Amino acid sequence: MKRRDYGQYCGLARALDLVGERWALLIVRDLTIRPRRYTDLQAGLPGIPTNVLSTRLKELEQAGVVERRVAPAPQRGVVYALTPVGQDLEPVLLALGRWGSSQLGDPRPGDVISPDAAVLNMRANFQPAEAAGVTGSWEIHVGDLVAYAVLTDGEFESGIGPAPGKPDLVMTARLGADDVPSYRAFVKAAKSGKVDLVGPRELLDTFLRVFTVPKAA
Amino acid sequence: MKRRDYGQYCGLARALDLVGERWALLIVRDLTIRPRRYTDLQAGLPGIPTNVLSTRLKELEQAGVVERRVAPAPQRGVVYALTPVGQDLEPVLLALGRWGSSQLGDPRPGDVISPDAAVLNMRANFQPAEAAGVTGSWEIHVGDLVAYAVLTDGEFESGIGPAPGKPDLVMTARLGADDVPSYRAFVKAAKSGKVDLVGPRELLDTFLRVFTVPKAA
DNA sequence: CTGCATCCCCTCAGATACTG
DNA sequence: CAGTATCTGAGGGGATGCAG
Predict the structure, then answer these.
(1) B23: left (phi over 0), alpha (psi -120 to 50) or beta
(2) Does residue A113 share a domain with residue A83?
(3) Which tens digit of pLDDT belongs to each residue from B150-189?
(4) Do A11 and B92 lie within an 8 Å CB cutoff?
(5) Where is the HTH hxlR-type domain (chains A, B) (predicted)?
């Protein structure tokens, strides 16, 4: 299998050789949330041709970024997961995601908003400095989307779906009719008080402090 | 001009829409070092077809990443430079560069090593914590490549060519016959003492502390 | 000499259909 | 569920042409 490459001895060029092909980093994005099956990835990447997904998975596997596992008895089937090398891509995803977010205006009609994107966005907004020593758990509801964040003495974990265990604060955004259920929309709603809370109110401020980027001066 | 896009309301997807096309980030890489002319870019990106370079520059311009300037009297001609938005991509380049470097083995025959790659690599290795309060200037020679780094009370600047002003320390790597003149090769040489110095020896240790990533335990 | 535009070829993305 | 097979067309790779 001849892979075309940039032919430069350069970290950036090598990175692009490995994960620069179309769709590759979006596949990695979905896998950072949790391991997925083939059809999960298809569903999370609207518009990806099945042959491209198939090809990318093979390439990423060969690159040592993705691991193909045959799941054991209970559910059985094929599951794709990130290798440690693939997990090391998270800073890249966050850097790209932050930059892209700053270039992201209002959603255009037809834009899909996936739960994975929302969780990535929350992670990209995470402020480790503000989180130092903080413990707590939050559950986020925006439209159909449910996600959670758990802080254990500053250690951050997040994912799609209801929080594992009982969350300290459940937050449900009250969206306008036209609002798309994104992490952005949630934060916007939360900041303007358009959010229903189940739990202590102070934890909302904590959340906003730890999980949003402060406005530049 | 209809640009295909991922159709996701997601920072990462948007970033890839804007700078995810082939060659785009390598063009940005070269422009982070300094503004360039069309032919400079061609020379720095061996293998890029001229029509692709032309197309990318237009796309990047439209994306607000690159600015096309018509240089005034002295040299006259067209110069491409990064806009502030484009400069904000530096964390992305560094993150990708770091990851890619970790996946970068020995240079393969035919691999080109460009000065831009070397400077990006030095920047990616920069340790702000170690640099706090440090002032000094270094000039690096590896094969034909000359680059410099200047620290002014922790503020970091770097580029291709001889240092502006008289450098505190000039370092020239003694390469083996097979060694490719990369930043990596320089660091390797410097760490093993295979480097000729003009200036105080302690500054070499300072350099290695500030401009290399410490080995993980 | 710089700064592209044009042409041709061919790979690869995109879409759909189909199979173990 | 997890892909493979097949077709089409856009766009990358490479060479060349040409105006300012």
Answers:
(1) left
(2) no
(3) 999 999 999 999 999 999 999 999 998 888 899 999 999 9
(4) no
(5) 10-108
Are residues B104 and A14, on separate chains, in Cβ contact within 8 Å? yes
pLDDT band at B137 (very low <50, low <70, confident <90, very high): very high
For the whole model, what pTM was predicted? 0.92
Residue identified by tokens 């000065």 is: B115
User: How high is the mean pLDDT of chain B?
Assistant: 92
> Å from B30 (CA) to D16 (C1')?
26
- Which domain does A176 fall in, by range? 106-210
Cα–Cα dist A193/A172, whole Å: 11
Q: Which two tokens stand for residue A82?
A: 């990130």
Q: For residue A187, give the CATH number of its domain.
A: 3.30.1050.10
Is residue A98 assigned to a domain?
no
Identify the domain boundary among A88, A116, A132.
A88
Q: Is A68 in the same domain as A123?
A: no
Nearest to A9 among B91, B103, B111 (CB): B111
Closest residue of chain A to B105, computed from CA coordinates: A9
